[in-house]
Every structure is written in structure tokens, then in C-alpha cells.
Write a sequence for this structure.
């Protein structure tokens, strides 16, 4: 089954509201009912032959949508592989900044159209704000909260703590599972 089916569903009215709030912030927004629709959209409308694609540390990208393995296997795209140990960090940052497409997720999204991100080094946020020609945020509906305050709390106390565990960080957030 499609894991997205386990995530909370948005009503048509909520979808329209979210799209409108993002549009007011000059952010395009597409909402898909199935993961396969999102993947098809990327390959048909975002990626192009020869494009350089960078990505942030996103479980949505890597595990939920399996895009890391898929893009790595395709020769018509140039995946900037953040896991390639032969690339120096400074070179990797330059490559990501100059990517045609940068794929990332957000720690939380508010129904009022705000993205909330907490970054260890700030590199993912720098790519979101400046550099790559196109930035695509991939996120499940589990990351959507009703307002900015709720989104901020989710980013701190759900996403940040999970990331501390996943990245094996010895931080106060990990110890208390609350930031």
C-alpha cells in the first residue's frame, strides 16, 4: 500500500485554502492524493534532460518517494549526491547552490502558508532562500499544522527530535525528546 494513505487527509476546502495562502506568498503549491502522482509530476514538469539535481536530508525524498535511488540510477539527470564522500563539503555546497533543481522537505508547514525549518548548519535553508534555479519542497500532510505556532512547535518537538535520533546527535533535544 501507499504509505501516504496513512497520513491525515485534507478536505478540498483545506487544499484550496493552503494553495491560496502559498500563492499570496508567491509560492506555487501542488497537492497530490498519491505519491505516484507527485513523482510523475516531478519527472514530467520539473526535471529535464541534463539537469543537475541537489537534495537536502529528506526522508520524504529518500525513503517515502524513493527518489534518491531512482535518480541515482537514471543517466539523463545529474544527481548531486550529498553522500558521495569523494566530494569536499565546499564543492558540494557550490554544486547545490548552482543546481537546476533542489529538492527538500520542511519540518512543518502551516495552513496559513508558512514553511518552518530548523537546520543544523543552515545549508538547506540557504539553498531554499538563494541559489538553485528551482526549489521543490516535498512534504506529506503529516507536516501540516493549523497555524504558525503549531507548525513551530511541530518543527521543534517532532521533527527536530526525530532528526537528532536519526542523525545520532548527542543534544539536549535528543535526551529529553523535546527542544
Amino acid at each position: 500500500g501507499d504509505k501516504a494513505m496513512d497520513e491525515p487527509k485534507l478536505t478540498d476546502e483545506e487544499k484550496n485554502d493552503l494553495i491560496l495562502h502559498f500563492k499570496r506568498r508567491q509560492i506555487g503549491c501542488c497537492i497530490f492524493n498519491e505519491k505516484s502522482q507527485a513523482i510523475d509530476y516531478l519527472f514530467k514538469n520539473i526535471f529535464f534532460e541534463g539537469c543537475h539535481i541537489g537534495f537536502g536530508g529528506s526522508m520524504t525524498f529518500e525513503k517515502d518517494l524513493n527518489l534518491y535511488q531512482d535518480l541515482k540510477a537514471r543517466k539523463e539527470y545529474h544527481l548531486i549526491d550529498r553522500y558521495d564522500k569523494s566530494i569536499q563539503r565546499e564543492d558540494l555546497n557550490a554544486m547545490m547552490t548552482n543546481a537546476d533543481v533542489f529538492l527538500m522537505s520542511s519540518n512543518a508547514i502551516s495552513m496559513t502558508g508558512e514553511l518552518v525549518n530548523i537546520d543544523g548548519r543552515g545549508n538547506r535553508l540557504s539553498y531554499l532562500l538563494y541559489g538553485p534555479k528551482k526549489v521543490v519542497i516535498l512534504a506529506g500532510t503529516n507536516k501540516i499544522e493549523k497555524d504558525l505556532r503549531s507548525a513551530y512547535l511541530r518543527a521543534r518537538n517532532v521533527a527536530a527530535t526525530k532528526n537528532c535520533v536519526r542523525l545520532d546527535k548527542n543534544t539536549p533535544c535528543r535526551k529529553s525528546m523535546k527542544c
Summary: The beta strands are 52-55, 78-79, 101-104, 108-110, 115-116, 134-137, 144-145. DSSP finds eight helices and seven strands in the chain. Residues 1-5 have pLDDT under 50 and may be disordered. Residues 148-166 form the longest helix (19 residues).
